[in-house]
Amino acid sequence: MRGQWSLLLGPARLCLRLLLLLGYRRRRPPLLRGLVQRWRYGKVCLRSLLYNSFGGSDTAVDAAFEPIYWLVDNVIRWCGVVFVVLVIVLTSSIVAIAYLCVLPLILQTYSVPRLCWHFFYSHWNLILIVFHYYQAITTPPGYPPQGRNDMTTVSICKKCINPKPARTHHCSICNRCVLKMDHHCPWLNNCVGHYNHRYFFSFCFFMTLGCVYCSYGSWDLFREAYAAIETYHQTPPPTFSFRERVTHKSLVYLWFLCSSVALALGALTAWHAVLISRGETSIERHINRKERQRLQAKGRVFRNHYNYGCLDNWKVFLGVDTGRHWLTRVLLPSSHLPHGNGISWDPPPWVTAHSASVMAV
Ligand SMILES: [Zn+2]
Ligand SMILES: [Zn+2]
Questions:
Q1: In the chain, what is the greatest distance between 2 CA atoms, to the nearest angstrom?
Q2: Most buried by CB count within 10 Å: which residue of 13, 305, 312, 331?
Q3: List of residues 6+ apart from 26 with CB closer than 8 A
Q4: What pLDDT, in 10s, does the model give residues 57-70?
Q5: Quick check: helix, strand or coil at residue 220?
Q6: How does it sit in the membrane (predicted)?
Q7: From 177, 185, 191, 258, the catalytic residue
Q8: Which residues contact residue 355 at a Cβ distance below 8 angstroms, ignoring those fewer than 6 apart?
């Protein structure tokens, strides 16, 4: 059997060699040869023009989605002012309802100590909301200095063609690099970065606190107002005055708005609190997760060099150096600068050696 196969394979190999030889020596017509050469030359030209050492599937996807990114960036850029006006108008409407509708009602029913407590708490909360919002929208997030050769950088921004220090990222809406960029916030019409990150978080926290206070404190008034509105279409119709009807609707509006904002903003604040506890920004969260998975596949452990431990992360973030600062810098309006310059990231001197060695895993 093996002999029969070898007899058949021998002539087959010979035929194949002859065919290849003929094919190799076959000469193409001059016109076809010219066309093939031009086609090859064109391919080389096109490849050399499109060559990019950073190219890959991510670049191709980015390029395909570029028109959508452009549209979203421009919509957010131009709608920023509208969002800021919306925040101011909605917050002012709640304050106006509290003064014009809620205050006359509680003045008749609440005891003096209870009134005093509400008066001091509500005004303290309102002052902190207004202060932190104003600071968050007016404080620049911090930008890398131009033309300095002495700073430590980790890469070059592909958009600005400028050196980027560690934790710096390019904002496509502001169209510039931002130090320790967290995200671009349309509600602030500003980037959240090194110099205004604390103002942003404090605003979210105190606004959530204020909304919880308003919706919890006005629960009884809301129920009464809602019940009264349901009787509007009864026969005979109830004898509510115009002022009473406006008060009912205002209380329902106040409760629904504050409850919705408390839920949505509360979730956002909780998420940012988790990130701050881990010594990460929103952007670093994604980068670190990918890096953690990459190193895990190689059997190595990822270490976040900006994580000093939960408590020290909060102290660095809030700028708390002494125990007294929890009162003067956190619970009262304070415009102190954050630690560091946003370019080099040495831990503050009071961070203990133990904390400095604690790295996130
Ligand atoms: Zn840039
Ligand atoms: Zn921005």
A1: 115
A2: 312
A3: none
A4: 777 777 788 888 88
A5: helix
A6: Multi-pass membrane protein
A7: 185
A8: 308, 309, 312, 347
